[in-house]
Design goal:
alpha+beta, Pseudouridine synthase, 13 strands, about 15% helix, 13-stranded mixed beta sheet
């Protein structure tokens, strides 16, 4: 995201009933909302206004419904909006993007169809920036690198396979990573996506011999107790669909010992 507007970060550490006041105070600056332990109706809400709602997705939650029949976060958010604002009838909620069920982090929904259309355009034109943190088993050969692969999705296995060269029905996948911390048995990588492919980070890191902790599907030796994997959507930068100002959302890390050791 390239913007001529100055960048400024707000770290809001306590729960607030009106987080949008910070946005109004600095309407032309990049604002980071980092609401820690802000629990509302089982949702960790990072930011909310008339057009958007952003949550910190927990491990194990679906974004949209699937054949399991488990309640997805989209329905939980609808119920929250319906109750909070006493809305009659059906509540509109647009799913702007998705996170894999075993992952955690920043998840954006739109409250209006106009906001959804404008946000979809930003994502399709790659005007957004997404940063992830991943804990991997093996140290990469390089402390930082740009990975370019071609991913082919196997729908029956719900898995993507990475290739060095383009093959039929594959899609180009590009990410940048850097090593930011070494723990006793794991390595913390910060990842920025240039493309958004199915299981992209998981498949590309596995290809270079660095499977994510807990990710049995992509080569991890052991699962995590909660069934999740140590992949967290740390930040998401967008342009507000109505105000047109750049805004950054940041999700605090899950409360487990290994993640907390990364701080």
């Amino acid at each position: 995201m390239n913007s001529k507007q100055p960048l400024e970060t707000y770290n809001i550490k306590q729960e607030t009933n009106n987080p949008s006041t910070a946005l109004r105070a600095k309407p032309h600056k990049l604002i980071t909302y980092n609401l820690i332990n802000s629990k509302k109706n089982m949702l960790d809400i990072i930011y909310e206004d008339n057009h958007l709602i952003v949550i910190n997705k927990p491990v194990g939650k679906l974004v949209q419904g699937d054949r399991t029949g488990d309640e997805p976060l989209s329905e939980t958010v609808k119920l929250y909006i319906k109750k909070k604002y006493n809305k009659p009838g059906n509540v509109y909620l647009g799913v702007v993007h998705r996170l894999d069920r075993p992952t955690s982090g920043v998840l954006l929904f739109s409250k209006t169809s106009k906001a959804l259309s404008r946000l979809n355009k930003q994502f399709s034109q790659r005007e957004t920036q997404k940063t992830y943190w991943a804990l991997v088993f093996n140290k990469p050969d390089k402390d930082s690198d740009r990975l370019i692969h071609y991913l082919k999705r196997n729908h029956k296995q719900n898995k993507s396979y990475a290739y060095i060269k383009e093959i039929p029905n594959s899609k180009k996948a590009v990410l940048n990573y850097k090593l930011i911390k070494e723990l006793n048995n794991y390595y913390l990588l910060e990842i920025n996506l240039e493309t958004g492919r199915h299981h992209q980070i998981r498949a590309q890191l596995a290809f270079i011999g660095c499977p994510i902790k807990g990710d049995l599907k992509y080569g991890a030796k052991r699962s995590n107790a909660d069934g999740g994997i140590h992949l967290h959507a740390k930040t998401l930068q967008i342009y507000h669909p109505v105000k047109k100002t750049p805004i950054n959302f940041e999700a605090s890390l899950p409360n487990d010992n290994l993640w907390q050791a990364c701080l």
